[in-house]
Design goal:
Blueprint: H1 8-12, H2 16-19, E1 24-30, H3 35-44, E2 48-58, E3 78-86, E4 99-103, H4 113-122, E5 127-130, E6 139-142, E7 153-155, H5 164-177, E8 184-186
Parallel strand pairs: 2-4, 5-6, 7-8
Antiparallel strand pairs: 1-3, 2-3
Amino acid sequence: LGYGTMTMEEIKAMPVSRLADKNAHLYIWTTNAFMVEAHDVARAWGFTPKTILTWGKVKKTDHGTASMKTGYYFRGATEHVVFAVRGSLPKPKVAIPTLCLWPRIGQHSRKPDEFFGIVEQISPGPHLELFARQNRDGWSSWGNQVHDVSERVVVELDDDDGDDDLRAAHERIADLEAGKKRLLSVVKTLGARRSL
């Protein structure tokens, strides 16, 4: 894969629920095999799943032809986003379809730039991308593959409550970042809390 992974329990234990505003949107990328788990993560983080967005991967030279890759019974040509909400934010003023036909991107697990434009249209900022591959203008980016650490996502991890799952997730994050520039600063912020 070229990057570290976390268990579902470690992901669920991340302190997103405590960091997100009471009124926020959440977008969780997932594959066909992990749709149920993505819904479970959204709920564990204090969000209510509302709909699924689908990235229909098409060939770069022919946007009408699916770009199929691996699969056992069917050949994979999609990825999905579970859109979830918490609290109440204004409804969008633009109509966005739940199917987006974009070319497949060469780098494994990288998401289309067009997706971030949709998030900015639907969800008021500030915006935070967890497990980011790169920095994005106007966004806070957290991930062990972000090379330019000029913009840091600042997270408050409160282990005083004895939450072993949270502590384990924090230790796992630290393990994943070992040997690379630290991208996670343990301090307070208000700016990165509003929209996940």
